[in-house]
Protein 1
Amino acid sequence: MRIVIIGGGFAGINLAEELAGNKDFKITLVDKNNYNFFPPLIYQVATAYLEPSSISYPFRKLFRNRKNVQFRLGELLSVKPQENKVVLHNGELEYDSLVFATGAETNYFGMENVMKNAIPMKTLNDAIEMRNKLLQRMEKAAICKNSRERRKYLNIVVAGGGPTGVEVSGMFAEMRNGVLRKEYPELATSASNIYLVDGGDALLAPMSEKSQKDTYDALKKMGVIIKLNARVTDYIDDTVHFANGETIQSKNLIWAAGVSAKIFEGLPQESYGRGRRMIVNEFNKVANTENIYAIGDTCLQTTDKDFPQGHPQVAQVAIQQGEHLAKNFKRMVKSEELKPFKYKDKGSMAIIGKNKAVVDLPKPKLHFKGFIAWLMWLFIHLMSLISYRNRLTTFWNWMVAYFSKDQAFRMIIRPEKKNKTPA
C-alpha cells in the first residue's frame, strides 16, 4: 500500500515510525521543512534559552535506515481525489491512501493589522524571528533618549492565556528580573511591563481551577500584569487596542491567542467543520472521501463519547491518533476489522518559571504545583524529544541555565538582506 503523509509533526511522524520497516507499506512523508521540531519548546528558542537544533531533527537522518520510508521536501498545493494524486509545488505524488497531518496555523481572527504587525509563535522560523526582533529592540531601547518611546520597545504584550502564553510570559519575567538587568545597565532605571492578556475569564482555561489560580498567583508575584476578559481588536501604530476601549503602547505584541487548521484545494467543502478542521469518522477517515484520512490538530472527530465536541488540539491527541491509524492500516491490509479511536487523556501541564509549574492528572484526579510539578514538566518534555542527541543537548542547556541563572544564546543572527529596511 502506498501511503502519502502530508506533514511531519507529532501525528505524521508517529504514523510513519509505526509503519517503518513494514514491507506491506511504501511511505512518503511530505513536509515543507526538512526537519521535525518540538512545538512545546519553541518559546525557549524564541527567548534564547535553547538553540534551534536542540528541538529539531532532520527527517532524512531519522529515516535513513528505513527502506520503506521516503522523505519529500515540498508544499501541498492541491489534491486530486479522483486520480489519487497530490500536487506539490515541485511535482506530483500518487497514493493508495492519503493522510493529512498538517497541524494548525496561527489564527488572527480576521484582524489584518494584528497579522501584519504581531509576532507569531507557531513555527521554528517564528521563534528565530522573535528572538532577533526582541534583541534588536532591546538594543534600540538602550540608545533611545525619549523615555516614552523607550517604554514601547521594552513593554511586551502576550496575547493568549494558554500554556504558550503563560510559559513565554513567565520566561520574560525571569529574564527581565535577572540577566537583562545585568547586561543592559543603560535600562536599569527604565520602566517596562509584561502584559498577559486573554479574552476569557481564566488562564489555562482547559486545566483545573487550582492550576488556574496557582498560575495566576505565581505570574502576579513575578510582576506580570494579567488582563482577563480583554479581547484584542486591533494593533496599529505600536498600540494594542482592546474591545473595552483600553490600549497598551508596545512595539512587541506576541500572538499566542489561537490556531486554525488549513483548507486545501480539491477536498469537498463539506469535509470541513469548526475551525476549518477536517471532519473525520471514528477511524479518522475524512468525510465525503474514500481513502483520505486526517490526524492531529487538523481533524475534528466527534465520535469519541468522552469528547463529543472534538478532541483538544494538543500533542498527545496527535501522537495517539498517528499510532492508532498505523495499527488500523495494518489491520486493513490483513482484511481485519478496524478499531475506532478513543483518546486516553494523560493529563495536562504548564511551566510558569524556575521551580514553578502546574500539572493536572485525570486518573486519579491529582493536582501538582511548584517544584515537583516543575520536575514532572522537565522530565516529560525531555523524554518527548525525538532523539537522544536532542535530549542530551537540551538537558545540558537547562542545567547550565538553572545553576548559572544565565544562558548564552542571546545573539542576533539573521541573513543579510539587500535593500534593508529598519526592523
Protein 2
Amino acid sequence: MTDLGRIRPLWRALARVAESLLRFRRVGYLVVFVTSRCHLQCPFCLLSSDPPGSRRELTLAEFRLLACKLGPLVQLSLTGGEPFLREDLAEIAAVLLTRTRAPYVSIPTNGWFTQRITAFVREVLPRFPLSSFRLVVSIDALGEEHDRLRGRPGTFQKALETSRALMDLRQSHPNLVVDANAVLHDMNQEHLKETLETLHKTLPFDNLSVTWARNRLSAPALGADSPGRYREILESLRRLRGPCENRALSAVWRAVAQVTREGVAQVLSEGRLPAPCVAGRNLVVLREDGEVLPCEMLDRSLGNLLEHDGDLQGLLASPQARDLTRWIQRSGCACTYECAMSAGVVWNPGRWPAVLRAIPGCMGRADR
C-alpha cells in the first residue's frame, strides 16, 4: 500500500472518531442483525432460545429507506444468525456504507459459505477502500469437537477453508482483517486455551478473541471456576497476536479490545461495570425486523425504525427511548456484552488512560 493509501484511511478514521466524540449523544456504533436465521444448531447461541427466522426481515428496499437518515458512524457491525445466509448482504453493506461511511466494519460468520464470503470480499471491499472490514470466523474447538458444539459435521473444515481463503485475499485487499473468535462456555472451557494456542501456531489470524457465553439458558451452567479460566485466557491473548495488520489505528483498537475484556472480567468478579454503559446512546442494535434495542442483552425496544421514517436520532429522542436510557444509567445495569463494553471504553473518557497504557503491548507482531 502506498503512503497515500495508508494516510487516507487513517485520516478518515481519526476524523470520524473525533466527530463522534464531539457529538457525544449521537450513535457512533450500530449493530445490524440482518437475519436471525442460521443453518447450525449451537446451544450456546444468544438466539438459540428463539425459533430461527421467527421474525420478518427488513428488505433491501427498506434498508435503503432506513439508510437515508443514518448519520456517520465509527463502527458498523453486520451480524445474525449467519449473516451470509442473506444473499443480498453485499447490497445491504453497500447501502449502509454509502450513507454512514463507517471506517470500521465487522462481520462475524461460522465460515460455512466460503464462496459467498470470498465473493463478498471481492465485490464490496474495493468499492469502500477507506473502510476496514474485519471478518471474524467462529472457531470454538478443534476438529470434530467443534462440529459437535456447532451441531453439524464438517463445520470445522469449512471454518478453516474460509479462513485460509480470506488470508489469501488479504494479500490483494489491504482493508481486510481476518480474525477468529471463540465463545467460552461450559462445553469447551477446559480446552479453549489449547484451541487458541493451536490456531495461533497454525494460521496467521490477525487477532484471536473470546466471547463470554451470553445465552440465558447456558450461562448459568458455567462453573464457579469459569471466571478464573476466562482470566487465564485473557493472559494468553495478550501474547497471541497475529500479523501487523493494516487497519488504521490497529494498536489502539487492539488496546480497546484488551480493556474491554478486562471490563468483562470485572463484571464477572464484581457484578458491576467499570464505567457507565452507553448502550442506547452511542451504541444501538437494529434488529432484523426494524426494532431498535439498546443492546443484545436487554430485550426492551426503543421503538421500530420503520415507524419513525428511518430517523434513528429522532427515535432516540422520543420519551420512550429517553426513559429507557435513563434507566440503564441509573439502575447500574451490567452485563458482559462486549460490543456495549467496547463502546463504553471509547465513549467514556475515564477509560482512555487504560487504553493508552495498553497500546505499547498491542503494537507489532507477536512471536510465533
Protein 3
Amino acid sequence: MSFTKIANQIFNRAIVDYHFEDNIDTQINNPYSKDTIENKLYRKCWIDTVQWHFEDLIRDPNIDPDKGMQLKHRIDKSNQDRTNLVEQIDSYFRDLYKDVKALQNAHLNTESPAWAIDRLSILAIKIYHMKEQAERKDASQEHRNKCLNKLHVLLEQQKDLSLSIDQLLDDIKTGKKLMKVYRQMKMYNDTDTNPVLYKKKEKEDKL
C-alpha cells in the first residue's frame, strides 16, 4: 500500500473522529502508538480539522471582540503546533532516507515531503466539508450541484497530489531527488525576533 493511501485513510479517520463531537474543545484521542508516523499523521490532521473550525468561528461578523481575540490566540498557537508537527514528519523522512546515496544529477523538489503532506491533510478536510455541502437537504439544488462540481475537482486534486507525493518519496528513496529540509523559523512567535514583543520586554526590564 502506498504511503499516501495510508495517510489519506488516517486523515479521514481523524476528520470523522473530530466530527463525532464537532467541538473545538474536544480532546484528541489518538488511536496510534506514540512516536509512530501514523500517530503524527493523525495529530496533524486533527490540528488542521480543529483549526478549520476555528476559522469558521472567527469569521462570525457578530463575534464578541474578547472572544474573537481569544480565538485569534488559539489560531496562532494552532499554526505553530501545525508547523512543529510538519517539521517532525520531515524529520521522520530525513531519518528514513539518511543512508540513501544521491545520484550525481539528483535535484531538489520545490517543497519537502511533509509540506506536501500538509496540503494533502487540508485537502481531505475540504473534501469532507464540500461533500457535506453537496448533500445539504436545506440548500437549493443549484447550491448542491455547484458544490458537487467542486467536490469532483477536489477529488481529482487529491488523486494527483497523492500520486505526486508517492513519486517524490520514490525519487528520494532511489537517489533521484535530494532530501533537504528547511525549518520555517517563524519570527512573529519569537520574543527575540518580533519587535512588538522584544520592545515590550525591554520596557518591562527597565522598570
Protein 4
Amino acid sequence: MRKIIVLSFITLDGVMQAPGGPEEDTSSGFKYGGWCAPYFAGADEAAGEFMAKQMKSADLLLGRKTFDIFAAYWPEHSDMWPGINDVTKYVMSKTMNKNKSDWKNIVFLKSVDDIKKLKNTEGTDIQVHGSGNMIQTLFKNDLVDEMWLKTFPIILGQGKKLFDEGTIPANFTLTDSLVTPNGVIFANYKRAGKVKTGTIGA
C-alpha cells in the first residue's frame, strides 16, 4: 500500500492559498499571493536540505487547479525539481482528459474510489501539493497518511485554509522538525489513530 503525504505551506491561521506568487490564485479576491517568498531569502542551509528531502522523486496527486499551475511552470523548470517531469502525475478531475495536456506521465482520476485503488497499488509514496479542495476530500475519507507542513510566522485573516470543511478528528505524531532562523517551522507528522481525550491532573 502506498502512503499519501500532504505537503503544504501554511500561515499561523491556517491559510494555504497562493504561497508562491501574486498571480497563483486570486480567487475570492485574495490579494496576498506570494506571502511565503520573503522568508526564503533568509533560509539557512539546514532548511534547504530539509526542503530538498521533501522534493525527492515521488508520484504526485493534484487537484485540477494546482495541476494547471504546475503544468504551466514545471516542464520548463525541472532543474529546480529533479524528476518532476518523469514521475506520474495523478490528477483529480471529472472533466479533463490526457488529450488536454502536453505534460507527460499524466493519469486522470474521477472519484475517491480511484484514489483508494491507487493507494492499494505498488509504487512510491504519493505527494499532494496545493490542491486545497482535494485535500478536504482526502481528510474527509481518512486517506492522509502523513503531513509535511511549513508554518510561517504570518497571519492573513483570509484565504483558503488547509483544515476546512471535511476535516475529521484524527491523531498525528511528530516525526521530524526544524525551525529556521526567520521563524518558519518545518514539521512532519504521521497518522496515529483516533483522538484521545482526558482530564489534566486527573
